[in-house]
Amino acid sequence: TQLLEQSPQFLSIQEGENLTVYCNSSSVFSSLQWYRQEPGEGPVLLVTVVTGGEVKKLKRLTFQFGDARKDSSLHITAAQPGDTGLYLCAGARGSYKLIFGSGTRLLVRP
Amino acid sequence: GAVVSQHPSRVICKSGTSVKIECRSLDFQATTMFWYRQFPKQSLMLMATSNEGSKATYEQGVEKDKFLINHASLTLSTLTVTSAHPEDSSFYICSARTSGAKETQYFGPGTRLLVL
Predict the structure, then answer these.
(1) Percent of chain A scored above 90 by pLDDT?
(2) CA geometry: angle at B81 spanning B76 and B83, to 5°?
(3) Tell me, what's the pLDDT at B54?
C-alpha cells in the first residue's frame, strides 16, 4: 500500500504547456519534499514545505502544501524539455524517515 | 548543497557472491544515513536507517542478514548485499541527513547492481 499517491503517473505534454502534479495521502506529515530524478541518478531536492497552506515558488515551479498537511501539488508553468524527469514527493514524519510517493514521469516534447 | 557520493556506480556480480556499496558524505558529518532501493520505473523504497555507532533499523520485509549495514564513521555507511541473487538487481540509493536548524537529506547518485 502506497502511503503517498501521486497523479498522474505519466504525463506527456508539449513545450510551453502548463501542468499540475498531485501528491495525496490520508496521513499527516510534518513536512513534504519534492524531488526530481533523472535516469540513472539520485533524486535532487527541489523544495521543502512545512506549514499547512504554504506556497513556495521556484522560477516556473509552484509548490503548495495542503492546509491539513496531507497533500501537496506541484504546478509547472510553460514547461520546457529540460523539465523532463521523474518527480517524486516525499513525506517526513518525526523520525525524519522519508516516505516517497509513487512518482510522476513527465515528458516535455519540444 | 551538500555532496553525497556512492561507490561503485555500477556493479555486475555472479549469483551467490556478496557486493559492498559505500555511501559517503563528502563535506558534512551524518549521524544518520538511509538506504533505498528503486526498481525500474518505480519509486524509492526505504530499506533501512543507518545510525552511526549503532545497529541499523530495517523496514518491514527487509532481511537484515541479507542486507548488512555498517555505519562506522560520521561520513561513511556501507551496504553489503550478501549471497546476491538476480532478484536483488536494482538501483540502490543512499541519503545522508544533515543536522542543525535546517535538517535536510541529500541523496547519492545511486549504484546500479546487476546480479547474473
Answers:
(1) 80
(2) 150
(3) 86
B43 touches chain A (CB under 8 A): yes
Nearest-by-CA chain B residue for A34: B105
Return d(Cα B70, Cα A63) in angstroms, integer.
37
Residue pLDDT tens, chain B, 116 long: 679 999 999 999 999 999 999 999 998 888 899 999 999 888 999 999 998 888 899 999 999 999 999 998 999 999 999 999 999 999 999 999 887 666 788 999 999 999 99
CA angle in degrees (0–180, nearest 5) for A99-A106-A80: 125
Shortest CA distance from B109: residue in chain A = A42
User: HSE on the CB side for A55, CA within 13 Å?
Assistant: 4
Interface list for B 12-41 with A (CB within 8 A): 32, 34, 36, 41
pLDDT of residue A97: 82
Distance CA B96, CA B73 (A): 12
By the 8 A CB rule, do B48 and B56 touch? yes
- The residue of chain B with its CA nearest to that of A44 is B107
Hey, of A29, A48, A100, which one would you mutate to test binding to chain B, going by the most B CBs within 10 A of its CB? A100
Residue A27, C-alpha cell as written in the block: 496521513
Query: CB B9: neighbour CB atoms within 10 A?
Result: 14
How far B12 CA sits from the closest chain A CA (Å)?
Answer: 15
